[in-house]
Amino acid sequence: MTQPGSDLRDATLKAQYEAYPYPERDPKDEKSRLLIGSPSHLREIDYWVFGGTRPSSLPLRALVAGCGTGDGAIMLATHMARAGRPGEVVCIDRSDAALGTAKARAEARALDNIRFIKGSITELDALGLGTFDYIDCCGVLHHLPDPRVALNGLEQLLAPGGGMGLMAYAPYGRTGVYMLQDALEILAPVEEPPKTRLDTAKRVMQALPATAWLRANGNFGDHLTGGDAGLYDLLLNPRDRAYTITDFLQLLDDTGLETACLMEPARYDPSLLVWQPQLKARIEKLSWPEKAALAEALTGNMATHVAYVVRKGRAPARPDCCDPDVIPLMREIPGAELAKQIRLDGTLLFAFGTLEVSIPLPREARTLLPLIDGTRTVGDLAAAMAAQGMSRGKFLRIWREVFQIMESLNRVLLRRDPT
């Protein structure tokens, strides 16, 4: 897969990431923290891509296509190392500076399951990488000359049954960004060196009128806390487009892919945003893509779309949450801690970025969530609740409701060990 040759914007983009590798990271920080996010969280991959049934002994071969300074790659390789999972994470990027930072971060963690290759996502066929069970392409497609060609090339590298984790910019949550980009196209043209363009952008930000929409947008903070690299990538990136969820789903369809999950699923459920029965009834009649589009339009704060995707017709069949042999897993926050966040009125205040939504839960959720420890099966949970006087029928009804809510929030996932 090779795309047409370089143009001025592509050359400028390449120069940008050599001058200001993004995101700005200090390898010394690896001693004190691991950055966690989506996509490429190992438990998410196991569940959303493979349906929670892929044997943990089976090596996982992962590609991070456009790794930048390494956030997703370092997280995944660290998760695999901690869990004793065999496999490797192959990272490609065309920026020497970005690869240097990512390598230093891996060395700081003594990771031996990760390797780095200089190369372009638009020329993957020349690298002879083979196939992968999982491919991460996070924050890359929207900077490419032809995202469809690039995504199609990645799809061709997927092993049978594999999937990808993608992130693309979304327009409404980035209100103000493209206005400033237009202004800087005039004041800091792409022909100028990166340092000169950055200096101009800083001066513009110092003089930014109070009415500029960017000032009112709290959905991201790269221009405030992301250093020079963050400011440059947000406002000076020479090729930057955003996708509504409708456009994003069309991009997937055009390349033979479909979503296994949008992150978080509940974020795209507009029924959580309204309380009037008349509106809920109208929403119920909508198709899933229409519901997702409505949620995006109503909330206005989606700055990105994160998705796990698979080939069309190959979405994994996930385990029945009421199967007594299935094992519930907390994605990250321990169940006991999550239970403490449930308010006195039985609701969980959940943040979808800058939007907080009250999610009603059965009162028994406070008791159920702390029981989830990654080893107990659903049958074990039922037995524990039976010891407190709960019938099996009531347990199954309540557990299904709790799980479906927590799954939609990407907080509780499932694993079924293969027999």
TrEMBL record:
<dbReference type="GO" id="GO:0032259">
    <property type="term" value="P:methylation"/>
</dbReference>
<keyword id="KW-0489">Methyltransferase</keyword>
<keyword id="KW-0808">Transferase</keyword>
<dbReference type="Pfam" id="PF13847">
    <property type="entry name" value="Methyltransf_31"/>
</dbReference>
<protein>
    <submittedName>
        <fullName>Methyltransferase</fullName>
    </submittedName>
</protein>
<dbReference type="InterPro" id="IPR029063">
    <property type="entry name" value="SAM-dependent_MTases_sf"/>
</dbReference>
<feature type="compositionally biased region" description="Basic and acidic residues">
    <location>
        <begin position="23"/>
        <end position="32"/>
    </location>
</feature>
<feature type="domain" description="Methyltransferase">
    <location>
        <begin position="65"/>
        <end position="164"/>
    </location>
</feature>
<dbReference type="GO" id="GO:0008168">
    <property type="term" value="F:methyltransferase activity"/>
</dbReference>
<dbReference type="InterPro" id="IPR025714">
    <property type="entry name" value="Methyltranfer_dom"/>
</dbReference>
<feature type="region of interest" description="Disordered">
    <location>
        <begin position="1"/>
        <end position="32"/>
    </location>
</feature>
